[in-house]
Amino acid sequence: MKPKIVRTIEALRRETAKWRNDDLTFAIVPTMGALHEGHLALVAEGLEHADKVLVTIFVNARQFGANEDLSRYPRDEAGDVAKLAEAGAHLIFAPPPEEVYGEGFATTVVLKGPAKANLEDKFRPHFFDGVATIVAKLFIQSGADFAMFGEKDYQQLLVVTQMARDLDMPVRVIGVPTMRAPDGLALSSRNQYLTKTERGYATAIHKSLMQAAEKIRSGTDPQKAMRAASRSLTTLGFKVDYVTARNAETLAVPQSHSDEPLRLLAAAWIGKTRLIDNIEV
After folding, report:
1. Active-site residue, 39 included
2. Fold of 189-280
3. Among residues 39, 90, 126, 206, which one is catalytic?
Protein backbone atom coordinates (compact mmCIF):
# COMPACT_ATOMS: atom_id res chain seq x y z
CA MET A 1 0.00 0.00 0.00
CA LYS A 2 1.30 3.46 -0.88
CA PRO A 3 2.45 5.35 2.24
CA LYS A 4 0.75 8.62 3.06
CA ILE A 5 2.81 11.75 2.34
CA VAL A 6 2.68 14.77 4.66
CA ARG A 7 4.53 18.04 4.12
CA THR A 8 3.93 20.06 7.28
CA ILE A 9 4.95 19.52 10.89
CA GLU A 10 1.33 19.89 11.94
CA ALA A 11 0.24 17.10 9.60
CA LEU A 12 3.15 14.91 10.72
CA ARG A 13 2.21 15.28 14.37
CA ARG A 14 -1.42 14.62 13.58
CA GLU A 15 -0.53 11.27 12.00
CA THR A 16 1.91 10.18 14.69
CA ALA A 17 -0.60 11.14 17.40
CA LYS A 18 -2.98 8.57 15.90
CA TRP A 19 -0.31 5.92 16.36
CA ARG A 20 0.27 6.99 19.93
CA ASN A 21 -3.46 6.86 20.66
CA ASP A 22 -3.45 3.26 19.42
CA ASP A 23 -0.42 2.41 21.61
CA LEU A 24 1.74 1.80 18.55
CA THR A 25 5.49 2.34 18.49
CA PHE A 26 7.24 3.78 15.46
CA ALA A 27 10.69 4.19 13.95
CA ILE A 28 12.02 7.11 11.95
CA VAL A 29 14.36 6.72 8.96
CA PRO A 30 15.82 10.15 8.08
CA THR A 31 16.93 10.37 4.43
CA MET A 32 17.69 12.91 1.73
CA GLY A 33 15.88 10.83 -0.88
CA ALA A 34 17.46 9.16 -3.93
CA LEU A 35 16.73 5.94 -2.10
CA HIS A 36 18.57 2.68 -2.70
CA GLU A 37 18.65 -0.77 -1.09
CA GLY A 38 20.64 0.59 1.83
CA HIS A 39 17.78 2.93 2.77
CA LEU A 40 15.25 0.15 2.33
CA ALA A 41 17.29 -2.01 4.71
CA LEU A 42 16.80 0.74 7.30
CA VAL A 43 13.05 0.54 6.74
CA ALA A 44 13.15 -3.24 7.13
CA GLU A 45 15.12 -2.93 10.36
CA GLY A 46 12.65 -0.33 11.60
CA LEU A 47 9.82 -2.78 11.02
CA GLU A 48 11.69 -5.29 13.18
CA HIS A 49 11.67 -2.89 16.11
CA ALA A 50 8.44 -0.95 15.78
CA ASP A 51 4.82 -1.20 14.63
CA LYS A 52 5.13 1.65 12.13
CA VAL A 53 7.90 3.27 10.09
CA LEU A 54 8.15 6.95 9.18
CA VAL A 55 10.60 7.94 6.44
CA THR A 56 11.66 11.55 6.02
CA ILE A 57 12.82 12.91 2.66
CA PHE A 58 14.56 16.25 2.90
CA VAL A 59 17.69 17.48 1.14
CA ASN A 60 19.24 19.44 3.99
CA ALA A 61 21.15 22.40 2.58
CA ARG A 62 22.72 23.11 5.98
CA GLN A 63 24.96 20.04 5.78
CA PHE A 64 26.43 21.00 2.39
CA GLY A 65 29.51 23.19 2.18
CA ALA A 66 29.94 26.05 -0.27
CA ASN A 67 31.73 23.87 -2.82
CA GLU A 68 29.69 20.70 -2.34
CA ASP A 69 27.11 19.09 -4.57
CA LEU A 70 23.75 20.40 -3.30
CA SER A 71 22.53 21.31 -6.80
CA ARG A 72 23.74 17.99 -8.21
CA TYR A 73 22.26 15.90 -5.42
CA PRO A 74 19.84 13.41 -7.05
CA ARG A 75 16.12 13.88 -6.44
CA ASP A 76 13.38 11.41 -7.40
CA GLU A 77 10.42 11.66 -5.05
CA ALA A 78 8.11 9.55 -7.24
CA GLY A 79 10.68 6.78 -7.44
CA ASP A 80 11.34 7.04 -3.70
CA VAL A 81 7.64 6.73 -2.87
CA ALA A 82 7.31 3.62 -5.05
CA LYS A 83 10.28 1.99 -3.33
CA LEU A 84 8.96 2.85 0.12
CA ALA A 85 5.55 1.42 -0.74
CA GLU A 86 7.18 -1.87 -1.66
CA ALA A 87 9.35 -1.79 1.46
CA GLY A 88 6.32 -1.38 3.74
CA ALA A 89 6.86 2.16 5.07
CA HIS A 90 3.72 3.71 6.54
CA LEU A 91 4.29 7.46 6.37
CA ILE A 92 6.54 9.90 4.47
CA PHE A 93 7.43 13.36 5.74
CA ALA A 94 8.67 15.40 2.76
CA PRO A 95 8.59 19.05 3.80
CA PRO A 96 9.68 22.06 1.72
CA PRO A 97 12.72 23.98 3.02
CA GLU A 98 10.61 26.83 4.39
CA GLU A 99 8.68 24.39 6.60
CA VAL A 100 11.90 23.15 8.20
CA TYR A 101 13.83 26.41 8.40
CA GLY A 102 11.32 29.19 8.72
CA GLU A 103 12.02 32.89 8.44
CA GLY A 104 14.48 34.02 11.09
CA PHE A 105 15.66 30.51 11.97
CA ALA A 106 18.75 31.06 14.14
CA THR A 107 19.53 27.87 16.08
CA THR A 108 22.25 25.31 15.37
CA VAL A 109 23.31 22.24 17.34
CA VAL A 110 27.06 22.57 17.95
CA LEU A 111 28.99 19.37 18.62
CA LYS A 112 32.17 18.02 20.15
CA GLY A 113 33.12 14.42 20.93
CA PRO A 114 32.99 12.10 17.89
CA ALA A 115 32.02 15.07 15.71
CA LYS A 116 35.54 16.47 16.19
CA ALA A 117 37.59 13.41 15.25
CA ASN A 118 39.52 14.95 12.36
CA LEU A 119 37.70 12.71 9.88
CA GLU A 120 34.66 13.98 7.97
CA ASP A 121 34.72 17.12 10.12
CA LYS A 122 38.17 18.02 8.76
CA PHE A 123 36.99 18.05 5.16
CA ARG A 124 33.37 19.11 5.73
CA PRO A 125 33.56 21.42 8.77
CA HIS A 126 29.88 22.43 8.77
CA PHE A 127 28.52 18.98 8.01
CA PHE A 128 27.78 17.54 11.43
CA ASP A 129 26.30 20.72 12.89
CA GLY A 130 23.92 20.69 9.92
CA VAL A 131 23.15 16.99 10.36
CA ALA A 132 22.61 17.30 14.11
CA THR A 133 20.33 20.31 13.73
CA ILE A 134 18.01 18.64 11.23
CA VAL A 135 18.05 15.30 13.05
CA ALA A 136 17.26 16.96 16.37
CA LYS A 137 14.34 18.74 14.73
CA LEU A 138 13.07 15.50 13.19
CA PHE A 139 13.32 13.66 16.49
CA ILE A 140 11.37 16.43 18.25
CA GLN A 141 8.82 16.84 15.47
CA SER A 142 8.07 13.13 15.20
CA GLY A 143 8.51 11.84 18.75
CA ALA A 144 9.75 8.54 17.33
CA ASP A 145 10.69 5.62 19.58
CA PHE A 146 13.51 4.39 17.35
CA ALA A 147 15.80 5.99 14.76
CA MET A 148 17.56 3.92 12.11
CA PHE A 149 20.96 5.01 10.76
CA GLY A 150 23.32 3.13 8.48
CA GLU A 151 26.81 2.19 9.60
CA LYS A 152 28.18 3.35 6.24
CA ASP A 153 28.16 6.87 7.67
CA TYR A 154 29.84 5.62 10.83
CA GLN A 155 30.96 8.95 12.26
CA GLN A 156 27.45 10.32 11.70
CA LEU A 157 25.98 7.33 13.55
CA LEU A 158 28.16 8.01 16.59
CA VAL A 159 27.44 11.75 16.45
CA VAL A 160 23.67 11.26 16.37
CA THR A 161 23.80 8.63 19.11
CA GLN A 162 25.83 10.98 21.35
CA MET A 163 23.52 13.91 20.65
CA ALA A 164 20.38 11.96 21.52
CA ARG A 165 21.99 10.70 24.72
CA ASP A 166 23.39 14.08 25.78
CA LEU A 167 20.11 15.91 25.17
CA ASP A 168 17.97 13.21 26.83
CA MET A 169 15.96 12.62 23.68
CA PRO A 170 13.60 9.68 24.25
CA VAL A 171 14.62 7.88 21.07
CA ARG A 172 16.82 4.81 20.66
CA VAL A 173 19.32 5.23 17.82
CA ILE A 174 20.04 1.93 16.07
CA GLY A 175 22.93 1.34 13.67
CA VAL A 176 22.24 -0.90 10.68
CA PRO A 177 25.08 -2.72 8.84
CA THR A 178 26.26 -1.27 5.55
CA MET A 179 24.50 -2.63 2.46
CA ARG A 180 26.87 -3.48 -0.38
CA ALA A 181 26.79 -4.34 -4.04
CA PRO A 182 27.87 -7.91 -4.86
CA ASP A 183 31.40 -6.65 -5.56
CA GLY A 184 31.64 -4.99 -2.12
CA LEU A 185 31.01 -1.34 -2.97
CA ALA A 186 29.02 0.37 -0.22
CA LEU A 187 25.64 1.50 -1.56
CA SER A 188 25.35 5.29 -1.76
CA SER A 189 23.19 7.80 -3.57
CA ARG A 190 26.41 9.31 -4.90
CA ASN A 191 27.39 6.08 -6.69
CA GLN A 192 25.24 7.17 -9.62
CA TYR A 193 27.74 9.96 -10.27
CA LEU A 194 30.40 7.38 -11.17
CA THR A 195 31.30 6.65 -14.78
CA LYS A 196 31.47 3.01 -15.81
CA THR A 197 35.26 3.04 -15.51
CA GLU A 198 35.18 4.79 -12.12
CA ARG A 199 32.59 2.31 -10.89
CA GLY A 200 35.03 -0.51 -11.64
CA TYR A 201 37.79 1.14 -9.62
CA ALA A 202 35.52 2.15 -6.74
CA THR A 203 35.56 -1.33 -5.22
CA ALA A 204 39.22 -0.81 -4.31
CA ILE A 205 38.25 1.19 -1.22
CA HIS A 206 36.48 -1.74 0.40
CA LYS A 207 39.15 -4.18 -0.74
CA SER A 208 41.93 -2.06 0.74
CA LEU A 209 40.11 -1.85 4.08
CA MET A 210 39.56 -5.61 4.12
CA GLN A 211 43.23 -6.25 3.40
CA ALA A 212 44.26 -3.82 6.16
CA ALA A 213 41.92 -5.50 8.64
CA GLU A 214 43.44 -8.87 7.84
CA LYS A 215 46.94 -7.49 8.42
CA ILE A 216 45.88 -5.98 11.76
CA ARG A 217 44.34 -9.24 12.89
CA SER A 218 47.65 -10.92 11.99
CA GLY A 219 49.59 -8.54 14.22
CA THR A 220 50.53 -5.60 11.97
CA ASP A 221 50.43 -2.19 13.65
CA PRO A 222 47.08 -0.60 12.68
CA GLN A 223 48.50 2.68 11.46
CA LYS A 224 51.15 0.91 9.39
CA ALA A 225 48.43 -1.20 7.77
CA MET A 226 46.37 1.90 7.03
CA ARG A 227 49.30 3.74 5.48
CA ALA A 228 49.76 0.81 3.11
CA ALA A 229 46.06 0.93 2.23
CA SER A 230 46.29 4.65 1.53
CA ARG A 231 49.30 4.19 -0.74
CA SER A 232 47.46 1.45 -2.63
CA LEU A 233 44.50 3.73 -3.32
CA THR A 234 46.73 6.61 -4.35
CA THR A 235 48.54 4.34 -6.80
CA LEU A 236 45.17 3.47 -8.37
CA GLY A 237 44.42 7.17 -8.94
CA PHE A 238 42.31 8.01 -5.91
CA LYS A 239 42.69 11.32 -4.09
CA VAL A 240 42.68 10.15 -0.49
CA ASP A 241 41.18 12.35 2.24
CA TYR A 242 41.82 9.81 4.98
CA VAL A 243 42.41 6.10 5.53
CA THR A 244 42.72 5.43 9.24
CA ALA A 245 42.10 3.12 12.18
CA ARG A 246 40.12 4.54 15.09
CA ASN A 247 38.57 3.42 18.35
CA ALA A 248 35.19 2.04 17.32
CA GLU A 249 33.38 3.69 20.24
CA THR A 250 34.98 7.14 20.42
CA LEU A 251 36.82 7.59 17.09
CA ALA A 252 39.95 8.50 19.05
CA VAL A 253 43.30 7.42 17.61
CA PRO A 254 43.98 4.02 19.18
CA GLN A 255 46.78 3.49 21.65
CA SER A 256 49.68 1.29 20.60
CA HIS A 257 49.44 -2.40 21.54
CA SER A 258 45.96 -1.99 23.06
CA ASP A 259 43.01 -4.36 22.78
CA GLU A 260 40.46 -1.61 22.13
CA PRO A 261 37.82 -2.21 19.44
CA LEU A 262 38.84 -0.79 16.07
CA ARG A 263 37.00 0.67 13.10
CA LEU A 264 38.78 1.27 9.81
CA LEU A 265 37.50 4.31 7.93
CA ALA A 266 38.26 5.75 4.50
CA ALA A 267 37.22 8.68 2.34
CA ALA A 268 38.62 9.15 -1.15
CA TRP A 269 37.81 10.83 -4.43
CA ILE A 270 37.63 9.07 -7.75
CA GLY A 271 37.07 11.60 -10.50
CA LYS A 272 34.54 14.12 -9.18
CA THR A 273 32.90 11.72 -6.73
CA ARG A 274 33.79 11.38 -3.07
CA LEU A 275 33.20 7.94 -1.56
CA ILE A 276 33.36 6.83 2.06
CA ASP A 277 33.45 3.39 3.66
CA ASN A 278 34.34 1.68 6.91
CA ILE A 279 34.58 -1.78 8.42
CA GLU A 280 35.12 -3.24 11.86
CA VAL A 281 38.23 -5.24 12.70
Report:
1. yes
2. Pantoate--beta-alanine Ligase; Chain: A,domain 2 (3.30.1300)
3. 39
Whole-model pTM?
0.95
Interval 60-86: pLDDT, tens = 999 988 777 788 888 999 999 999 999
pLDDT at 94 > cutoff 80: yes
What is the Cα 46 distance to its own chain's centre? Answer: 15
Residue type, 244: T
Q: Fold identical between 4-176 and 189-280?
A: no
Domain boundaries, the chain: 4-176, 189-280
Distance CA 57, CA 59 (A): 7
Residue 251, sorted as left (phi over 0), alpha (psi -120 to 50) or beta, turns out to be left
Secondary structure (DSSP) of 241-252: EEEEEEETTT-P
The mean per-residue pLDDT over the stretch 262-279 comes to: 97
Rg of the chain on CA atoms, in Å: 19
Band of the pLDDT at 152, cuts 50, 70, 90? very high
Q: What is the pLDDT of residues 208-252, one digit of tens each?
A: 999 999 999 999 999 999 999 999 999 999 999 999 999 999 999
Q: Which amino acid is at 258?
A: S
How far from the centroid of its chain's Cα atoms is residue 21's Cα?
A: 31
* pLDDT of amino acid 66: 73
Class at the top of the CATH hierarchy for domain 4-176 = alpha beta
The dihedrals phi and psi of 22, each to the nearest 5 degrees, come to -95, 10
